[in-house]
Amino acid sequence: MIRLATSVLALAIGCWSAAAAADTLIDNIQGITVDEDGKIDNFTGLVIGDDGRIREVLDRRDKRPRDIDFQVDGEGRFVIPGMIDSHLHVMGLGFAAITLDLSDTNSLEEAQARIAEYAAANPGRRWIMGRGWNQVKWGLDRFPTAAELDAVVADRPVWLERVDGHAGWANSAAMRIAGVTEATADPAGGRIERIAGTRKPAGVFVDAATDLIAAKVPAPRPADRDLALQKAQEILLRNGVTAAADMGTTIEDWQSYRRAGDGGWLKVRIMAYAAGTGAMELIAGSRPSPWLYDDKLRLNGVKIYLDGALGSRGAWLKRPYADDPDNTGLPLLTGSQLRNLMSRAALDKFQIAVHAIGDAANGEVLSAIDELAGTYEGDRRWRIEHAQIVDPADIAKFGEHGIVASMQPVHQTSDRLMAEARLDPARLEGAYAWKSIADAGATLVFGSDAPVESPDPFAGLAAAFTRQGADGQPFGGWRPEEAVTRERALAAFTSDGAYAAFAEGRFGRLIEGERADFVMIDRDPLLATPDELRATRVLETWVGGERYYLAANESEDAPGNTSAR
Amino acid sequence: MIRLATSVLALAIGCWSAAAAADTLIDNIQGITVDEDGKIDNFTGLVIGDDGRIREVLDRRDKRPRDIDFQVDGEGRFVIPGMIDSHLHVMGLGFAAITLDLSDTNSLEEAQARIAEYAAANPGRRWIMGRGWNQVKWGLDRFPTAAELDAVVADRPVWLERVDGHAGWANSAAMRIAGVTEATADPAGGRIERIAGTRKPAGVFVDAATDLIAAKVPAPRPADRDLALQKAQEILLRNGVTAAADMGTTIEDWQSYRRAGDGGWLKVRIMAYAAGTGAMELIAGSRPSPWLYDDKLRLNGVKIYLDGALGSRGAWLKRPYADDPDNTGLPLLTGSQLRNLMSRAALDKFQIAVHAIGDAANGEVLSAIDELAGTYEGDRRWRIEHAQIVDPADIAKFGEHGIVASMQPVHQTSDRLMAEARLDPARLEGAYAWKSIADAGATLVFGSDAPVESPDPFAGLAAAFTRQGADGQPFGGWRPEEAVTRERALAAFTSDGAYAAFAEGRFGRLIEGERADFVMIDRDPLLATPDELRATRVLETWVGGERYYLAANESEDAPGNTSAR
Question: Which of B8, B222, B289 sits opposite A8 (nearest CB)?
């Protein structure tokens, strides 16, 4: 009341410029961003308005604003744009995280204890689901039994997949629900383990017999889905990922995203690509959705699968697999089916993302784009997902029609030995050819394919410029000529990831006017050794000016964080 | 600039009270609302803030605010709360409106002209769909033919239902798509009309044979759905309806509502009741949705069908139909199925709306509510939809557990002769028993069941206090002891309709703080004769402070409307 006039004036200013009175200053940082020209730019402070957008990017000599509500002293730490993962499965990541993982158990007893603990911690789950057990690792010379599961969980069905996915372990409740009894015959292609000397099912089901139980597992309930979404967001934020291209969004996934948006708990930005044109139409109608919830969610387009994966020899190749001479893999769609789906989506201005792993698949998508680009003009940003094995003769075509190559650096390091087995060395010239594809003129963007790989983008960055795995192998890098610079890798995980999802100008760079999505880390990603980079500690993750992740021993009360309120 | 200090002060006030600078004044009106005690209250002016809420309700002697941006001079006309239709089918209403209606054609030639005109006006529709033709009315002694349709529309399939729904008329394109040829046999229970002396299908399909074509009609595309929603909103607004309980919302319906909300073209408030528990879960998850888009949309609960309708003898009766002594109708669910569905929804706090027409169905829902109310405590507002035929012995039960009786006045006037045929007079004591049910203590709310009946709420109001049809029949009203007062009828179409959908305090009354949803009409609904009331002209319809409907010869530039900007 003493300062009435000033208060009134402050309020008035608040009216003209709604956020001035609620700015946040992130100061004393070593800021790194890709700028509007694709170059690296540095800064030492950020001013964030209460609309969650960057109001000012400050250099060392810039004057700091005086009316700041909340101030963070970065103590010289590094700040980079929030990482954008251009290819992952948000709900898959979340479900993997809330499913019991037995892969690191070393004995049946340890597994039993883990199962009991999980069941106790999840009283609301109607089925206990898990994976990863391996009786060989446990030192058992037999499969485990239903009775051994009943001993720890008898009140609810339990169904646990073996590490290889080729067998499952059920308790008696699960078998009862599935109606499996002595009278149940082994299905074609499958085997029901029986108690020695009897017909009584023992609890383990092999290959096709797993369906006897798996088919009875109820679809997840909305509460399960929401929990998975929450977990996925936690994991992404902990890894410094603030935006994710969700590849294969179902209506159920979308409804979870909307519940999160409506309920105010959508934290990570989701650029969704529907699981097929049916889901696309049901989710968004006859146009991509608007950006919803302050740019947190949009249905951009559709994900279309053209082939399978290399490991299972489902990738569609121009010539047979080196280790399977009668097999070239298979396209999942005919040429006209592919074009029809692409046309249907393109007609309604949806963005198209085609999964193509093998060189035949990539060649086919490139042809299809070339044919359709004349009809569906304008800024389409045709995406090819994975683009793992490309015929060198086709690489130049990535430079046409504004194609986006959405690739996953860690796949290269995980898959290289398998790829060498599947293909002759001569056919690996266009394999994981990040640099050649980018140099051809494609927009190169990076992702993790989580939960297939870890969503950690720093592992991706390290692979991107070294072509080496976390073990440092192979020495000098695998086909190192396809490595990209750190700067290009950072762009592929930030600004170019935004562009690939029509989000440029909204987020992806730390420049005035964009959403304040950033990560505070403990080392310089442009200078750290690959090993150091992989060990990067994410200290804080901010999305739209909100700090959604703070590393455990970073505290609100730490000297570096002061509130001006 | 001259008045800086004042401007600053004004801005500062603007900050505290964001809408003060953008108020709307509706003045010089004869305002009528149901007040918080359920009594009629009168007023002469409304001040609406720019948040779309009522800021002030003014009496004649109240001072008018000076800073008003937009002012409407009501010129003494009547203003009532926006009407709430507590039972209709929003998308059904819209689709009916965009489907070709031939019911008023008097010759084949007239019908052909109408079809050609409709096809030309709807170039984007893949199928031309229509209904209502009647060759008898046309003076034809035969069915029309495919060739006669081809003569006006040959480029697209055409499928037109006969007025009774028991036959359909296809053109050649439709028959081609359906694969109907000379070789197609008549299905059981159906007949394909043939060209005399040949096996060639003539174009008309009777009873079960209609499925041969109908099954090929593609599901509406999102653009069709959005058009239907737009039309439904236009119709409702034109009728003075500002909020609608949508009974049987599918995921496709919901997605249209969300597109409208996201795109800023959702005008009518929709309180949705999902088409079954599956749709409920998919739409909202494990709790009713929040109120979205400034109280424009909420998934409240689930619609459950317990029986059919009286006309088709599908309503479930305690004793056989008078005109079908072996038939009592049938429940669509067993007692335990009903209770299971209700429990599943109630467990997750969804509101439950059960369709019950016959006295057995009503008795069964009342029992189920009585049994479940102990388990699912709190404010549940169990809804019984229609409640048409109630055993007088059961009426008192409507007063328990806070039951909402959602009834449709016009059904009584349309159905009375049919009801008398179906049931003995003695069994009509509890038929359309609005007053008895309300007096028992239920919350009585009214709706139209559009598109089954017209959505015009003034016809509903007139029926409610007269028990007479638009023709004034029967003299003195049908079972006039069940008429309600005009005041109670108005509450059932406004404030109580809001309560029935958990919307009280948000809209439904014209009192300070509620959304400014109101209708300007040309006569006094509390004094007009029934005939006058049915002829009410809706002049303006406002939702949330936005005028979404202005009658054709009312103009923005009319002397009564002045903008202060």
Answer: B8
